[in-house]
Write a structure and sequence with these properties.
By secondary structure, the chain is mainly α. It has a domain of 27 residues. The chain has 2 helices and no strands.
Amino acid sequence: MTLEWNEFIHIVSSFTEFLISFIARERNVRADLFAKGARLQNSIFSHVNSEIPG
């Protein structure tokens, strides 16, 4: 977890502003369905790529 946290802090520091806000499932049905589908597939996202897509 420490490696992920350090990478997160490094990436966030490159932005001038960073904000996380709570959005209820009822107000974001599409993302909720996507998350439920990923859980059903037992998807594990264990790699974070810090490169900016080109």
